[in-house]
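#structure-requests
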Amino acid sequence: MKLPGIQINTKVVRRILGNNRNLVGVCCFSVLFLIGFFMYGHVGLYFNLSGFLIVIGGTFAAAFVSFKFSRLKILCQVLKASYRTREIEPDEIVETLVDLSLKCKFRGLLSLQEDEQETTVLFLCRALGYLVDGYDVRQMRDFLTTEISFFRMRREETERVLRTMAEFCPSFGLIGSVVGLMSMLGGVGDTSVILATIPVALTSTLYGVLFANFVFLPLAAHIQERTDREVLLKKIILEGVVAIGSDLHPRALENKLKSFLTPSARAEKLVSLERIRKKFNVGCAESPHHGEAPRSEALSS
């Protein structure tokens, strides 16, 4: 997209709008959810400190009994990173790998060592390290596949913590209701005691269901979605680096990696000679290494 004197990256615009749409959706439907509570007045009836403490205190106490502190700390770190770290799009990774393949054709395998030091994607950094160190293709695939498997396993453990806490919440809500009912029975004949304990009995169940379905389960689903996305990126990197190590033609590599993308993302042509020259400082007169495909062949369809 171009405006007079302004050049706009449409990819960046789409990603920013996509993130804002999520935020707008959460805000709008949360407002609708809250309106349902406040439509008939008596807002103060939904707030009860005793029921809140029973549900939250009991849920987190049970979580500390069930899991090690280190596991709960990892959960906090994963949640923090999932919301504060920018998501990398699959087409960005494909574009980077095709660029690296072309750079390898022009300058040789050891030139990728610069990108190993500069890339911010740790998995890509390690994969390029294996490639530059001269590991066999089968060894690289074995190392990277193992890392992907254990990454998914760790994330599933983190997700399981949230789902377990979601299971605890309704149970402690029920406990709060029982506490409220017992207090109410103990105050039979005293109207003030009954009026004070009824909200504890009712709101505790409400809080338990609310925290389970509005906090812990959505967070678990978010981690699962983020994990699936990161595993996809790692698989793209795995196949791309193995293909570069196997000296696969850049155009064939591009076509192979595009199979990971959605049809709309495949429409854009990723290989751009101008972008390669600018990004990797490849001059017009620079020629590929001996025994490698000529540049015109590497860039042609």
